[in-house]
Amino acid sequence: MCDQLLSRLESSINLFFSVQGHRMNLVMKTLTIVSSIFIPLTFIAGVYGMNFVNIPELNLQWGYFAVWGIMVFIFILMLFYFKKKKWF
Fold this sequence. Notes:
The chain has 88 residues and is mainly alpha-helical. It has one domain: Methane Monooxygenase Hydroxylase, Chain G, domain 1, CATH 1.20.58.340. It is 80% helix and 0% strand. The protein is built from two helices and no strands. Helix 1 runs antiparallel to helix 2.
């Protein structure tokens, strides 16, 4: 009887750790997707946040909106790609 209880307890502990590991993997996957979306956008914002005089888009009338458009386009493209791969 004790051996059966020990076996069941070990199985329950293994199941608990397996479920806990699976939840952690889902959280890590979500964090990876979010960071992979925002890293390119942060790079673009960082480059345009520097005080350079010779960035060509700064002298254009629609340069500010063009950069925002590119950033939104990258965001939507990455969301579409992740949805297509069924990662989201």
